[in-house]
């Protein structure tokens, strides 16, 4: 099999209170696959990304296995093998020019030229490289963040809420962009509460509720009244989409 | 940006007027008799008539407000009056000591700044480790240490026991001003500057640590780490640039404390700077000299705060670009 | 957690109480003058044969008393002025400007100025310390109050016709209490160190009073003759007392902040 990333019985808990925020999460991801992890806000989705990258806050601990190509993930995998597309513009250093920030991500010979190429591919002007993050518009900033996925050599991309807050057009662009990443043979873990975006992109959908994955199912099971869906929470989620209102 | 700088300067002028007025009023309320301070022990030989003549000569028989206006207008024309204890124009006394004090303060400011930022950065990057605990412990120890006592200890160890450094004065005794080299000045400034900076490190260090810890909590640091930056690379790439501006600003804003520290250090090491002059002037009732140094210290504090504010305008791209647009 | 707070405070208070057992005049014993530290005189003796340990403890006692009085007065003044600042925007501007004015001179210079006017002594020191320490706490309290005033429940009380002093008593004071405590514990050691400094410079307590600053400034004259204990032990004792209190302050602040202390996004 082409399995790249394996997460096996991963739990995240609060160190002192032993309160579990994520419990026994398991899934695997192969080349060119997109797995969407959906769940409401506060269900611990972002923590999963941090746990996989081993960047949990001080007071949180994890147990279970995270394997990259069969080996335990360590800090040297970050950026090189696994990469994170962040949620917000705040992930850009406010005091560093955009070009320099992108340059740090892509490890090629002529990184300056590579940055310009990337910016062009995303439809951004070359001058963007010389700007500071606060000078970018919201849409521009999103695209700059997406260069991380395009430019990085990593084969696993974790996209943490890449679509919320975007207008229709920008969202469409972002989805197209991620599809492009997928077609380049990278595996994508899409973490989102934007169910609609998940259905457009993903092969499989994992539904997270109260820290547990209640169901992993093929994307085509989301059809009709949701009769192919096993878990009531998943059904409720499907039926809550605007286009499915009339089923109620 | 220019507007902001000028506005700030205007505030300085208003504040200085307020300080001068308040100081002048306070000093005139004091029980210290300037004539006695001037005449000294020969006071008994002065008859009441002579006393009145002196008062009239100095304008002490005028109403308070007239006295203030006369004083402030002569200051504006560059005349700070005559020092009662040194019996030379105040400007001369100050000019002589200003350089000594600035040398001392600059040395201490640089040393404590560099050391403080370094220690604070190490402590923040290694937060929670033994090295962080040692550095924090050192800072808390210093915050509890009376500065003049530390000075006394250094004086005992280095000057009395080891005899490495001189016990006082900013230049060797018996030399005329022309013979004093910059090296002599520096040599005599080292111990007091060391005292000042040892104490000063604590504040800079704790501030730097706090700022850097705040920076390390931001999303962009999380992202940088997700991209594979760690340790010294993370610090050089993102930590330093985001922590430096607040740290330096705080250090500039500490000019006032530094001036206070210099007063004590100069006293312990008999280092003839402005600090020693203000103590002598205060103890012996030399009002013209005293008022002048109070004003200088106010300017000094303001300049520190002013630079701290301006730095953001000049160095932070967010404020800089915005400032240029408007 | 609790232990961290209580033990240092207990030791601190114990030393203070102990010092009251010492007679106000420490006996002069010229036969035993200028003794280096020994078992019978742990801190040595001075040029009049007085025991330095006793003198130091008396000095510490005076320092603590002064520190408490001034910390209490500065905090009260800070509270009063910060509440005044909330009355209307004109008062607020006045208070802010006063803060700026008092912060525009180095503390020590303000202090020398006040001592110049009032002529030093206990009263001069207390007033000087109070006037130099109020701005910092007033600034904190003022910011806190300005924020409180915009709170919905305060607005509701106002609309229900509750008067200014009712709001001050029932909304502001309970909220400010922790701030006042922290302010007090921060000003207290600061005031003690400041008092020692200015007394050392000659602007504080008079030479007859058994203050640490006096002991240390006297010791200056004997340093070159090698009587190191005159300066070393009194200063060290003051330092120890300050450290004890600081341990308490840190534990106390930690205790107050424990609910907010959880931290995000850090690993290192």
What does this structure look like?
The complex is a heterotrimer of chains A (248), B (326) and C (268). With 248 residues, chain A is of the alpha/beta class. Chain A has one domain (31-54, 78-239): P-loop containing nucleotide triphosphate hydrolases (Rossmann fold). Chain A is 28% helix and 27% strand. Chain A is built from 7 helices and 10 strands. In chain A, helix 5 links the parallel strand 7 (156-160) and strand 8. Chain B has 326 residues and is mainly α. Chain B has 2 domains: 2-76, no CATH class; 93-325, Orthogonal Bundle (MetI-like fold), CATH 1.10.3720. Helix content of chain B is 77%, strand content 0%. Chain B is built from 14 helices and no strands. In chain B, helix 7 (147-161) crosses helix 11 (255-268), helix 8 (182-216) crosses helix 10 and helix 13 (287-315) crosses helix 14. Chain C has one domain: MetI-like (MetI-like fold, Orthogonal Bundle), CATH 1.10.3720. Helix content of chain C is 71%, strand content 0%. Chain C is elongated. Classes of the chains: A alpha/beta (248), B mainly alpha (326), C mainly alpha (268). Chain A binds chain B through residues 50, 53, 55, 58, 75-76, 78-80, 83-84, 86-88, 90-96, 104-105, 132, 134-135, 148, 152, and chain B through 128, 218-220, 222-230, 237-238, 241-242, 316-318, 321.
Sheet-strand content of chain B, in percent, reads under 5%
**Overall mean pLDDT of chain A:** 81
Number of domains of chain A: 1
Largest sheet of chain B: none
The rounded distance between the terminal residues' Cα atoms of chain B is 8 Å
| Largest protein-protein interface | B-C, 58 and 48 residues
Low confidence ranges of chain A:
none
User: What is the H level of CATH, i.e. the homologous superfamily of chain A?
Assistant: P-loop containing nucleotide triphosphate hydrolases
CATH class of chain A: Alpha Beta
Q: Please state the oligomeric state of the protein chains shown.
A: heterotrimer
